[in-house]
């Protein structure tokens, strides 16, 4: 399903990028990691983002009837690729805002290289590294995903509450991995636990036995992996299973997704814990669930809710700013996202346009959770944990 969805997403985005852009088109750039270590997540994210654009255009368009379009650039979850990709969006395509990047390193590179100098607002649906919040960004970089400073702490608290006091830890050597591992390790030690071994790994290797052996030698029987399932993190998991030295595994959102079990013997992963930002429950989630079902999409896909919310919020901010240029979008974003205001749910574009035109405050309630941007453009949120149980990944609810 993912491969088919990716093909459709890429094909659709390619057509959008190749089609002649009319004078009244308003362009949002998609700085999307459609290749690289999170390519398995990207299809659902791109599809959801384009669904938000479809909802806008089907309800009268933007700024008095203009057409909202997406322009795709592949950042490949890599800062080296993200720089030129963002440059094309900002300086060649002249987008008014950017959805993305997905990986933290890609977001940081795209922001520093082009978006910030070009006065372009970005909203990332998936860049969780603490370093994103530390950018000198002129209030241009936002994200509607829970940062790793929360996910890492909650993961540590969960293991400690379950009686695990010693772990081995490995993380992909980039902003995402080091940030999440750092938050986890600090909280785990502060709570009385011991990190017996803390080993960085690089993606793209065939053999991770040296890293695994170093962790084995520490005596750890619980292995925490903060990496990507279809890159180094997944290879480490496979080789650690073969080694047979670990009785428990834990991973973050980068290890989640359908491929985790589809390419492995589920019995080998029985009891594995995964953490991920919790989607909202209630009217907002239900509204997006209905929209995605009608479009043949899955609302429960990784970062699907965050992706839809990010693009719908950008559209609302452009509408609120009153012009198809880059000025004023940052300030307008908080106006449409943060309380107070009349509540807008996913898909309620016509209602939002009417209220904005009347000068009425609105408050978009996201399917990914309540979106209230703080001073650095972050949102608060909750963390769910999942357990591999009986051959399936089961949502066990919030980490309290």
Short description:
This protein is α/β, with parallel strands linked by helices.
* Main sheet strand line-up: 7-6-8-9-10-14-15
What fraction of residues sit in β-strands?
15-25%
Q: Termini, distance in Å?
A: 33 Å
SS element count, helices:
14
Spell the H/E element sequence. HEHEHEHEHEHEHEHEHEHEHHHEHEEEE
Q: Tell me about the biggest sheet?
A: 7 strands, mixed
**CATH homology group of the largest domain:** Response regulator
Description:
The chain is built from 14 helices and 15 strands. With 400 residues, it is of the alpha/beta class. The protein has 2 domains: 2-146 and 280-367, Rossmann fold; 148-277 and 382-398, Response regulator (Rossmann fold), CATH 3.40.50. Residues 1-23 have low confidence and may be disordered. A 7-stranded mixed sheet has the order 7-6-8-9-10-14-15, sandwiched between helices. It has a 5-stranded parallel sheet with strand order 2-1-3-4-5, with helices on both faces.
